[in-house]
Each structure stands twice: as structure tokens, then as C-alpha cells.
């Protein structure tokens, strides 16, 4: 249930409402909008008397949120959330590009890639230090050493850093180096990990699970938000279907759909969605046209030598060309990108 306070309501009105909700044993989340302050009531709302709340001073209306996800729903917050990644705003008018290799392989290649990303107009550097590989025998990442390299690349280039955290015990360590904590597709329903990143205020990039519905994805975001971290970016990275010729099937309709259901920004990953570098630029253009607030793409200076995901990694020239194209598409719908 949400309680919308009128624009002439006072601090005392708000305190009284919050007190009434808390005394019914519920948690309160307050969202200060431009027009209204909204009090979100989280928990078992059956003990709340809607009529009693409705007549409290300053209350404009009391709305039952019909969706199972509450804090992340559009009903709870009308305005778009803009996630501030240490100065890079995701969810505003500009489309933000995150790019880099699948994994941090070594210092030289990462620094080289970071410069390519920065010079082409990317704003956030991606790179896995802890890799969730399907096979336990595949390259698992450099761990903390990889995080240190990412931080150095960030200091040299000014790019922010997004990197995956695999387990709740590693959240503090990864948050010590990363500007954005990535929750991978395979961990989208790892609820203890979601709760742990929710206890930080660090922006979170929440990838959609391989076989997850939009509702399950938003419920995962709700886990993060319910712990007190509202800085969530959703990332559509393709879902598994019967289609054989692509790694996954990019569900582009999820972009406008999720923007209707939720106020959170949406990022698209055309690399993992397709698994094929030739499909990355067309899907990146389409994602921007569909209204994505950001893109995350794999770029490698020499994809043939990549330790993971070489076939879907863009070479520097193709990446630069893709950046020019998405800037055009962004402009055509009244948005820009960093280089546009
Ligand atoms: C990644 O982005 O490094 C990754 C492993 O992607 P996903 O979790 O979407 O498979
Ligand atoms: Mn990858």
C-alpha cells in the first residue's frame, strides 16, 4: 500500500502517518518526489485500515499497489529513477555506454581496452574479476588482482567501473573497488546476495536471469530495494529459448515493458544476448531505439585471443563504429550519448 501526501502536507502530517503505519507493524519507505511525498508500506498490509489512513491530515490518497513488487513499481514512484554512478547518470536523457572485456585478463590488455572505451565515448568500464563460468575448468578470473587492475584503469581514464560480485561474502571486497556491483544472470535469484548488495548504497546492475520472467526479475530488484538500496539498474541480457543460432534471445520488448512497470533504468547487453559480434551493433541500435537507458558491450583488442567470450567481443574499430551509430539513433529520439 502507498500513501500519497498532498503537496501542502507538513512534516508533522508525515510523522503521524509514518507512526500509524509503523504501529501496525509495517516498514516504511519514503520517496520524496517533485510533486508528492509517497509513503510506501511494506509488510503485511492486512492490519492497516485504509479508511483510517485516508482521513489523516495531509493524506491525499491511499493506493493499494497491485503488483507483487512494490518499491520498484511505477505505482510507488511515478518519476524515473536516475542512478548516479559517481557522476555518471543512468536513466536521464543520455544513453550511457558501459564496455570492456568479458574478463580482466591482465593489466596491459585492460588498460589498452579502457583507453579504447574512453576515446570512443564509453563512460563505464566493464570487466569480470570473478567469473561465473559454466565449466569449473574455464578461466575463473583474477579475483582481487583483477579488481585492482580495474581500479587502476579507472584512475587513468576517468571511467567508472562495473564488475560482477558472485557471493555475499565478497560484496564488501568488490564494493571497495567497483562503482557498480553487477549481479550476473546466474545469480539473479541468489537472495542472500541480493540482500547483501541491498545493504550497501552502491549502484547495482541486476541482470535478468537466463530463464526469468519479467516479474521474477522485478521481484529480485525488490529484494535489493527492500534492504534500503534504491540504486538499481535492470539489465536485459537475453533469455533462453529454442532458438539455436544465437546464444540467447534478446527480449527487446522487455525494455518498454519494464519502463512501464518500474521506475528503474534499463540497460541492454547485446553481447551476451546474441553471443555473436556481428549481431551486437544491430541489437545495440535497436536497444537504443527501444528506449534503453544504457548499453553494456564486450570489447576486446584481440578477440581471437580472449580467455572468454571472444566470439561476441567487438574489435576496437567495430566498437567505434557502433558508438557512432548508436549516437545517431539516440539523437533521432531526442537523447544523446557521451560522444554524440
Ligand atoms: C557478464 O556480463 O560478464 C556475464 C557473465 O553476463 P551474464 O551474467 O549476463 O551471463
Ligand atoms: Mn562475457
User: Poorly predicted ranges (pLDDT <50, ≥5 residues)?
Assistant: none
Q: Could you give the count of β-strands?
A: 15
Distance between the termini: 42 Å
Strand adjacency order, main sheet = 7-8-9-10-11-12-13-14
| Biggest β-sheet strands, sense, barrel | 8 strands, parallel, barrel
Radius of gyration: 21 Å
* Count of the separate structural domains: 2
The fraction of residues in strands falls at 15-25%
Query: Mean pLDDT, rounded to whole units?
Result: 95
CATH superfamily of the largest domain: Aldolase class I
What is the helix fraction of residues, given as a range? 25-40%
Order of helices and strands: EHEEHEEEEHEHEHEHEHEHEHHEHE
The CATH architecture of the largest domain can be given as: Alpha-Beta Barrel
Named CATH topology of the largest domain:
TIM Barrel
The CATH class of the largest domain turns out to be: Alpha Beta
Tell me the number of helical segments per DSSP (H or I, 4 or more residues long). Answer: 11
Give every kind of bound small molecule, once each: phosphoenolpyruvate, manganese (II) ion
Describe the fold and architecture.
A hairpin with a 2-residue loop joins β5 (83-85) and β6 (88-90). The mean pLDDT is 95. The chain has 2 domains: 2-63, Phospho-2-dehydro-3-deoxyheptonate aldolase, domain 1 (Alpha-Beta Plaits, 2-Layer Sandwich), CATH 3.30.70; 83-337, Alpha-Beta Barrel (TIM Barrel), CATH 3.20.20.70. The relative contact order is 0.13. The protein has 11 helices and 15 strands. The protein has 340 residues and is an alpha/beta fold. It starts with a strand and ends with a strand. An 8-stranded parallel barrel has the order 7-8-9-10-11-12-13-14, surrounded by 6 helices. Manganese (II) ion binds next to loops.
